[in-house]
């Protein structure tokens, strides 16, 4: 059992390429992090030629058995990126059968299509946790670490940007009118707009800002952030959809696409088993009400969450919530598992995909939720999850079947990819 910790702050490319100077043998060398190379040689016998005398015994050569990769949260995107990198020519150079030859199963404990809460963090330095603080807490936080300062910090950490919602208006985040995961048809919750504005009119009677779909929200984000941030996003990540096989083949050569499962094909690995194990039943950030405030002493307006908005049961202090695990919406956790990877366009080897949902049943007096919680982080202590992982690692694949307790299949069927 090996723990492959990574630096979540930096881009995935830099996990491999970042270097530092080190004095060795009377000269200065650049020693690179080589995160993905080290992960590769943990699985198959390799040597890193630019790090002297470093040979790591592999799991495969030592036991004769394939490896099970278990990933949580951003780690799932790291594994997807690794699976493309390791086989790509000029990168991992593992060849087109490396995943099939070396990986028994990929256990994904989280989402695959990002999380909405990454968006306000980058736009205005806020999230549900800070938007809903009381007045005294807000005063203290703003005095010592303001929204603007928090946003600037988060934009400098590329890893945060990798978790922005993927798929645009089509896949899951709404087309301006409705969204696949609207709770009902009675108007109690409509998440067709990702960013909503109260529609306050200026002195000329014109609405200052209309509601925005997720695609329009990205344009709004670019409008309120510096060019350096735009370049960081475009050179490292992508948030769209590949609609043809030709696009997917071309994206095999483009690392900025490899953290978005809607823009790359899984490796051709007919023996690979994929398990999506995630929680449901906990209110999760899904869309936001915003307003623009004018900075004191200037004519500059900045976007902030409008915490005066409380709409019906699902919106509190400007944050609208939906089904999920408290951090990741259901549609992000489940879509690729129940539908996306059932399509041979994205899963050319027809790797087996099993989806196992766990309902949130927190312990009343347990600070971390107890053995039946499905909270995004606390689920790692859930007894059921640990048992599932051990069964998979022990090769008891036949014991684990689909367990769907949410409406993810109905939601997925509303998406016309």
From TrEMBL:
InterPro entries membership: AB_hydrolase_fold (IPR029058), LACT/PDAT_acylTrfase (IPR003386)
Entries under Gene3D superfamilies matching the protein: alpha/beta hydrolase
TM helices/strands, residue ranges: none
Any one Gene Ontology molecular-function term assigned to this protein's record: O-acyltransferase activity
A GO cellular-component term linked to this record: nuclear inner membrane
PANTHER family for the chain: LECITHIN-CHOLESTEROL ACYLTRANSFERASE-RELATED
A Gene Ontology BP annotation from the UniProt entry: phospholipid homeostasis
Protein name according to UniProt: Phospholipid:diacylglycerol acyltransferase
Keyword line: Acyltransferase, Transferase
Pfam families (alphabetical): LCAT (PF02450)
